[in-house]
Specification:
membrane; transmembrane; mainly alpha
Length: 65
């Protein structure tokens, strides 16, 4: 249950930060701002990054033992 809660928090903050950055970047580069597309990409990237770091850390701990 702890892992699910941690992933939900990561998803929430990733979407918030990337939506803001995407809006600002879209205005600066005069590009179309698509909130749903940006949110989906942010969610996938955040989950891959956080779970990947966790897997690498766990495998490193097991290798030392």
């Amino acid at each position: 249950m702890k892992a699910l809660e941690a992933n939900l928090v990561v998803i929430f903050w990733a979407v918030i930060f990337v939506e803001v950055i995407g809006y600002i970047g879209g205005q600066l580069e005069v590009m179309t701002y698509v909130p749903a597309q940006i949110g989906i990409v942010a969610t996938i990237a955040a989950l891959i990054f956080t779970n990947g770091v966790k897997l690498v850390a766990n495998s490193d701990t097991k290798a030392k033992n």
